[in-house]
Amino acid sequence: MRRIYSAFMSKAKGLFAGLLDHITADIDMAIDHEADAADRSTLRRLRTAPPSHQPMAEAYTSCAAHLHWNQSYANEQPSAEMEYFWSNYTYATVAIPTEGVFPPGRCHAADGFALYLVCQGADLVYPEHHHPAVEVYGIVSGTGNWMRGGEGQRLRQPGSVFVHQSSMGHATTTNAEPTISWAAWLDDVTTPAAFSDPT
């Protein structure tokens, strides 16, 4: 995990100062171009949620120096594949409701949503997984091939914003550089993600 953390920090200078504006602008563009009505509705909900408020902007900048990086799927059985995943994937909590999961490193209390920064190493497969939370994902840096629901893989680049509806299976494979992303969870933020059954 130290390697992926270093990859993030090498790109982090200047990221936090403009992150709130970056997220807001990308959500606005996604609303204008999203064909799916349910996804448009989700994006509008996030757009009017507290991330657009000044306290959240302050939370970003205050978190920059002391983010607490976490690993997902800590209860999975150790294997070569999981060890590789754990050493190349990490996330930091920026804001979360007090009743939410993943409390370590909480920087700001939020109302009804959770917000994370995510770093996924280069050439890493994040297998199909799902969670009850509705998730809005935005790419800040790097590229990856994303699959959601019954759709095929789609290349996502910086500025891309997309929605994973509740319990929708989704997966990603990064390309030659790490991806830095933000992810917002809405509704059920207390149930962690689980890998989808491959059968």
Q: What is the name of the CATH architecture?
A: Sandwich
Number of helices: 5
Q: In CATH, what is the homologous superfamily?
A: Jelly Rolls
Number of domains: 1
- How would you classify the quaternary structure? single chain
User: What strand line-up does the widest sheet have?
Assistant: 1-2-3-10-5-8
Shape: globular
Number of strands: 11
- Following the backbone from N to C, one meets helices and strands in this order, namely HHHHEHEEEEEEEEEE
Query: What is the CATH C level class, in words?
Result: Mainly Beta
- Give the CATH topology: Jelly Rolls
Low confidence ranges: 50-57, 100-106
Model description:
This protein is of the alpha+beta class. It has a single domain (2-188), classed as Jelly Rolls (Sandwich), CATH 2.60.120.10. The chain is built from 5 helices and 11 strands; from the N terminus they run ααααβαββββββββββ. The protein has helices at 2-12, 19-33, 37-47, 54-63, 80-88, and strands at residues 69-70, 89-95, 113-120, 125-130, 134-141, 144-148, 154-156, 161-164, 170-174, 179-186, 194-195. The strands form 2 sheets. Strands 1-2-3-10-5-8 form a 6-stranded antiparallel beta sheet. It has a 5-stranded antiparallel beta sheet with strand order 7-6-9-4-11, with no helix packed on it. Helix 2 runs antiparallel to helix 3. It is globular, with a radius of gyration of 16 Å. The model is unreliable at 50-57 and 100-106 (pLDDT under 50).
